[in-house]
Specification:
Distance between the termini: 35 Å
Number of domains: 1
Shape: elongated
Largest sheet: 2 strands, antiparallel
Radius of gyration: 14 Å
Structural class: alpha+beta
Amino acid sequence: MTEVLTSSGVLGEIDKQAKHVASIANGMHNAKGYVGDAIVGGGSKPRAHGMVKTTDLHTKRSNAKHNTLLKALQGGG
C-alpha cells in the first residue's frame, strides 16, 4: 500500500491539485505568494499529501484576513 500512496502517479495528481488551489488563491485579494507542492510525509506510514503555503508576509496577512486558502479549497467562491 505504501508503494501506491507514494507512487509517481499519486504524487503527480496531488501536485496538480495543490498547484490548482494555489492558482485560485493567487487570483484572489491581490496576494500572489501562494505555492502548492506534493510531498511525502515520513513516519511509520509514509504517504503523499499536498501543501499550499504562503511565501511572503503580505500573502500571509491577506490569508489571515480573508481566509483565502479555505475559499480556494472551496473553488474560489
